[in-house]
Amino acid sequence: MSLDTRWGVAVWNAGRVRIDFRGSPDPTLGVEWELGLVDRRSRDLRNDADELFAAAAGRLPDPAKLHKELLRNTVEAVTGVCRTVAEAMGDLRATVEAVVPVADGLDLDLYGAGTHPFASWTTQQLTEGHRYAELINRTQWWGRQMLIWGVHVHVGLPERDRVMPVLSALLTYYPHLQALSASSPIWAGTDTGYASNRALMFQQLPTAGLPFQFQTWAEFESFAQDQLTTGVIDELSEIRWDVRPAPHLGTLENRVCDGVSNLTELAALTALCHCLVVDLDERVARGERLAVLPPWHVQENKWRAARYGLDAIVILDADSSERLVTDDLVDLVARLAPVAERLECAEELQGVLALVERGASYQRQRAVAERTGGDLVAVVDSVVQELRDSL
């Protein structure tokens, strides 16, 4: 059994896995924003991440904040450890604003959505590295299909023993985040009928999808031991749940959201994630027992949000109460308003309601396709322009 010290794992002689959670004393924030690379003329994906990194050498404010990903058609902008949403957005803006002129010089544009509407997976190239090659070797056809992009939001938690209760309670709001961020309605030239095709694509990978709802950290350690012992994973980072602990960072990592096309909506989604996690953690710290949805309701809510987006009727509690997700968002934003004031993201949290009013990305993409008679190049144009307009 291998050690994974980067993720804070120790293996005892008795064979028991211990996972050290390096708690964050403050509710810090970190954001990872995946972006596709599209050709300026054809609007198809281009496998030119290596060329972009080479051209960007010496021009980025912090080269460590731009990462390569599984495929060479993708780059990822990441923040440092931030205190507020505004700080995180400023961090991302600085990186992306430096990348855009470099991409311009290569006739590339940055593309922020959950999927590309017409690119073929057969022409995409893998980033060099054993980790990625082994993923594709194991997952085969499904792994090669992963033309998907998302946003990951990390929120710092102080106590290991509060992580699992917060994670399980956060799943009640899974469909809210999925519906707001849904941006992947069109796949391989076809409207799938789903608001987020990405959500259902990604869960085909082993260890991806919804997390198990463990009550204690010890149960999570036992699960990890089983996964390592049976060879399902070689390291903890291969647990690719939609919401997962990041023990080495002392955070809870929310990976629910589809790719996002602009900084304004990214700020709103980040604020909602930040407020939800902090609110739930504070309630656990006060001794409150958080309500948790049964796993079958969580699973159904994920499907409903992926299928219907902002028109989804979601299940709210174990008694099977239901409500239109946009109606519930209005009350949720109001309830979290005091938390947002303390976290200095009140304006960004109100952006959730503005997003609903404007329409989510999947709705805007469909509107462009309908207006142009199904012109998917025009759809890519619209997504690219939203990012440029937000800088």
UniProtKB/TrEMBL annotation:
Please give a single GO biological process term from the UniProt record: modified amino acid biosynthetic process
* One Pfam family recorded for the sequence: GCS2
A molecular function (GO) term: glutamate-cysteine ligase activity
Q: Which UniProt keywords apply?
A: ATP-binding, Ligase, Nucleotide-binding
ATP-binding among the record's keywords? yes
Question: Looking at the keywords, is Transcription present?
Answer: no
Q: Which PANTHER family match?
A: GLUTAMATE--CYSTEINE LIGASE 2-RELATED
What HAMAP family does the database record attribute to this sequence? Glu_cys_ligase_2 (MF_01609)
Q: What is this protein called?
A: Unannotated protein
